[in-house]
Protein 1
Amino acid sequence: MAAMPNVPCSKRRDAAVARCSNHLARSSSTTDAAAGGTITTHAALGLGAAKRSLDRALAPYDGLWSRVLPMTLLFGVMSFCNCILDATKDTLVVTAFGGAEQIPWLTVWAVLPLSIVVLAVYSVASQRMFGRGLFYVSLAPFVAFFAVFTFVLYPNHASLHPHALITQLTATLPPGLTGLLAIIDNWTYTLFYAFAELWGDVVLSLLFWAYANDTTTLEDAALVYPLFGIGANIAQYVGGVLLCFVRTAVPVTATRSADAAWDIQLRILMSCVLVGSAVLCGIYEFTRKRNKADEMERVKSESRELEEKSSKPAVSLGESLGMLVRSPQIQCLTVMALAQGITANVFQVAWKGQMRDIFPLPADYSAFMGVVSTWQAVVTCICMLGAPYIFRKWGWAKTTALTPWVILWAGGAWMAASAWLPGVTSSMMGVPMLSILCMAGAAVYVFEKATKFSVFKPAEEMVYIGLDENAKTRGKASVDILGGQLGKSGGSVLIQGLLLCSTTGHLAGALPVLFTVHTIVAGMWIAAVSALAFHHGDLLDALTSVDDDDKDTADLVCDLQQPA
């Protein structure tokens, strides 16, 4: 038996401890590796499941992104310009005129006549040109006017407005006519308000959606139409941020008055609109040339249609509208547009009157509108992300009725509160009641706009896809331009009558009447949606609620066509 080496006990003990430590370290490493492998495996499985869910969600959009993204960008630039114009026109009118009571006069005596002129021009132009030519003929007058206003009319508005004459007339005429005198006095602002108001009707509602209807199939509309608005709301968010930033970048200082600061701010904002107009023209050209084969086929089709139309006697505007009146679909869409215009006008005049009392300076008013536009963009974008699911879950009819129901309950509750709460208490928890109502009105405004642009507008546009060419062009122009403005004018005439009967020229005492009208008209809007659903809502429900494999789109489009 070999003898043990003569090693001290302390060294043997240290060696044993070292061997035990190495063994424990190797065991721990193995355990940690196994645990890490398990965690990695679970993470991989989770990521795989998420990826499969995302793939399933995006599967219906395969092959559509090349068309969806450019159209989304086009709609976004148009909406960016509309955001700036909408805030600027309200700022000019409400702060310069001294209140929101002038808006009804503007709607009836400026916007409505201009909308009739635009509709007549568009109706004549649509018989002589198509596509690209019609797009630029409709867009050019707006861009030209905004350029003239920014660089010629507004810098010289003090010398162009007949203040002395209007001051003399104001002293002799009833207080209810103050709004009419104000729009005559500030006639350059009046023209700007009319053109800016019609930008949304002509460029956003008519030109974009007419172009989208020409380039989108009926089976794709329920998928892509809600998504077009995502780019629009991102752009509107940017517009709202820009409105707030410009106020901060050009502040009122010891050497710069509030009016001087607003002059600079307005020129910056309108320059952005003019640049945006040039950009949207570039995007439009890009989308038209994206698919050359489709473009060539479209040009050939347009040429054939133009030859056919030139061989026929020209149809007057009255005859065209007469043919459209006999269409049950156009009838329902017109009632919906009228109701939408009346409810929007009644609500916004009352709300903007409160805003004027809280934000009397143009820069402050514009900045607050920027905040409202920012929140509107965020909420609308969230609603648009869920819109395809809502269409599939609820179907076309219930989804279309969502917006008038929101207007009926939310808008009606706000108008009722505005009519009666100020007479009960002047504040709540230390906050002035006027401020509470103004902020609540902003929330109602945001949610009404969100439901309108996320679900109602796409649902409305789906109806046009299956209609004939006359309904798609002149019918759509009549509904979008004239129908909406007639609705706003109807509300404006009512408000003018109430103002004329008022001894103060203010709307505060007329709010109970406006609440009643708002409620009745919102109910008519819901009834018109139900009537349209009765005519062919089941067909649109089939497109928006069933799987793609079960759709027979060709038959559905034929069923949507107008009778001969």
Protein 2
Amino acid sequence: GACGGRGGGELARSQKERVARSIQSMGDVLREQGERERAMEAYGEALQIRRALEAEREMDGQGSTRDEQEGGEDDGDGGGGGGADLSVASTLYAMGLLHLQMSEWDMALVRFEESLRIRVHRMVEDSGIVEHEQHHDGGPASAASAARSSSPEHADLDAASALEARSYDVAMCLHKMGRALEGQGKLARAVEYYRRALRTKDDYCPADVEGTAVFGDLGALLIEMRRRAPYEDLTSDSGSGSGSGSSSAAAMKNLGGGGSESHREDLDLALECLSKSHKRTRAHFGDDSEEAADAAFLKGEAFLARGEHSAAIYCFDECLRARLRSSSFSSSRARGEEDDDDSVAAEEKGDEGNKGSKGDDRSRHLLRARSLSRLGAAHLARSRGERAEDDDLDRALEALDESLSILMERGYDGTDDHASVLLDKASVHERFGDADLAVMCLEVGHRVFVELHGPDSLRVAEVRIRMGQCLVNDREHSRALEHFEDALRIRGAHRHGRRSGGGDEHDL
């Protein structure tokens, strides 16, 4: 009778687990369809059932049944193995994905941390690591003790490292935690988590979509941090005693993509990651897909940041060709039948609200405009170097004009994209000797940056320096001095703000 009762209890728990799995699967479908509130309700219900099952097993002092082990990780997060605690980890992971889509970074991080902690503990148990075991280098006592330390986030990270990152599921948790940290603006810590997710590349990042995303995210973030670095240099003390001319020249050297040796290793890693992402993305989605175009764009950014302008031009050209072919294919398919895959993709990237075909079309135009803008910037950069070609400036102006036309027609005037194109156009006009046209572009770009970021932002200081240099070349020294003095005032204010703890990194 006792055996029968115990067997009946296991059967009941197994049935409840199947119900929880079905509810979570329903949540996955709702999430894919953009019904986020209903998806969160489904995940919450599945989590409640699984937490209750876990509590029952703890009270009975029982391990999970074979049936639960077989079913616990069939929820689509790529895991293997099982057990009730891992089924809880699966639900927490799914909830974290939904929080990411909703840009709820704090809650996403909490859910992924919980999921990671469960997975690491299971790995510790399965690998037989003993709590009192010490590392030879005097590090944490063990993965198990690290996972119980006072800092859960870093404890789980150390535990995963101690286990040499053997689990694909742990890798995906680390990857998604990196995305949440990036959303919070904690870029250096996000890079740390992305790096951990690449610790053992072959095991952690197989050639699937999830594994490819780790390479793309890390590479893209390293490029973004490199882009921000020159603005940080503007607030440093370097060159403060050299006078306005040399200080401005140093600032413009940084803003022009020179950069210090300290960034070189990051750029090398970025190119390595983005090259792998590009290759894998083309294999998964095809050469003519939007995904391949995005990957080619980021690879071009890496080459441009490294000063390899011809390679950057090749990548941006490839990106534009893929966008054009992808757009033509999407248009012909839309004329033939209803298909909202692009809408789902937009939702998965975290865009607010449901995207219709008009919104998707507008977004594609923006991506094309950005690709043209960076192609123009690459031609402009190459025109200054030893490998310059005769038509680089003409091709730069052609690409920038087309980009600007798209932005104005599609309602993106007054945006950062609009101002950035104008600044590059100003550089081209300067090279052609058209000072008046250059100043006109800079003045419009200046107004846009003032409206978007305020009159005392570092972006405004950048444009002020550019306008001053342009006016010096045109021998309008009094007007140029006004711009230089205002730029130095902004620099001084930001340098003081950083020293006193009042600096705003988000202004970068």
Protein 3
Amino acid sequence: MVSDIQHGCRNNVYTPRQLWSGNRSPVSVLYACSLFVMLSGGMAQEKLQAVKHDVPVSLAMLQLWSSFGTAHHNCPNGIHRGACLLDSSWQSVALIGLLAVSHFNQRDSRFVPAFNSSLVRACDKRLSLKGPIDIGGDAIGTLQQIADLKKDVAGLPDIFIGPITSDGSLSMVALAGLPLTTIISYWPSSPEASLSSRYPRFMRTIPSDNDLALAVCSFWEHEMQFEAAAVINSNDAKGERYKQALQRYCLEDVYMDLRSFAFEIGSPEGIEEAVKAFGQTGINIALVIASASDTVGVFELAVKHEVLRRSPPSLWAIADSVSPTDLFALSDEAKDAVDGSVRIVATGATETNPRWRRFVQEWPTFTPPPLSELLPSNWSTAAEFFSDFDVNASTVARDVGTFMYDAVAAAALQACVVAPQGPVPSTFGADFHDAKRNVSFAGLSGTVYFDEAGDRDPTSGNFILSNVLLNDSTREFSFVVRASLKASRWDWSEGQRNLVYNYRSESTPVARLQPPPPPPPPP
């Protein structure tokens, strides 16, 4: 635990427990402590020779600008590379990533104090960006962009920042035939990525779904005293791994009756079959783990088949893949049913984080960072966007952009640890990954540090529970934060559980129907 190490370093107390969770030699103890002191700015401020920050560490940044597979007449923001351009919230993520590169190169420490630490000021590295690359458009075009990085073998990226999804762009990196690659990701939360031997140098700044599953089970069992629940999930890496984590915690740790119903991605028939099967269980509590479009499909069919119930009240939950804008696609009848659902996610931004508060305050004053001119032309110019966009009100900026900024920060700081001076060595990738547990820093998403697998340590993550609420006049949704998870307990914003449930019910849901529904009629 980082707090243990800080205590040990400050008080000259060194025990194995205070060095994360492994056996460390005295040399590694001293190394970890000296690194903590340097990154936290606690080193005696000796005069350092002026160091030019001119040795490049190359980054390929994978971002999400568009969504392929939607009919073009349903693209309100226009078309980009044959796909629907996403809304402006995703422009905020793109710009936040570019800002992080610029801030490190300028040693601007307003949002990551370690950028001005003794270690970093003495480091001659700068980040050289290859990209950014949109991974949301046509798969063949995206694959070609990634494969083009191989043309200049000497210029291959040292680090990938990204990808967005565990299935899609991790596979694209592998299919493009790139050599063993160091990846720091900012949004895929599926445990699959860090477990897979295909990506032995994978790290992420967003907590894993393993940790999120524990938060969900804690809410269901400890807060609501539900004895049963169900998962309706797509059968991709995220859906399956998240479901397995829920089964492990909810079944084995808290002994709930947890059922699961999987469907093929994008299959209306598969979704309907899963929803109807769920309806026969008599269970009244459900979590949907799927893409935004498939989540909309699940809710429409749940209303059609009357398994999202008004009486007795249900409690359904949505995953982090769904934004308020996505739910606008629901029919009016489904919107009324979804009103009062919950959303439990790992969040990046918290109002208690002074670095995030300062970022929000200074957002309108930012100037366009280098390469912002490469973003889609249908979006606003960067200068207009900084002036007009409310970054603090954006779920995507808070829950994706913050992790993007800290992924870039982790790449930069770790590069300075393993190669503070001189050219990037041939062993850079292996050295970089080996050093992952020796770096921690304060960033936009809180204090960041990594475990042995390269996942963000769960104790450094922030988890929130929100009510999904419908505005009757605009028919638009918002996510209203009700609680945060602290020390394995939910801390409610008003001092007590202040939730409403589906159909905006104020009555506490029941986990099962009594008696269960009758079996379906014979075909």
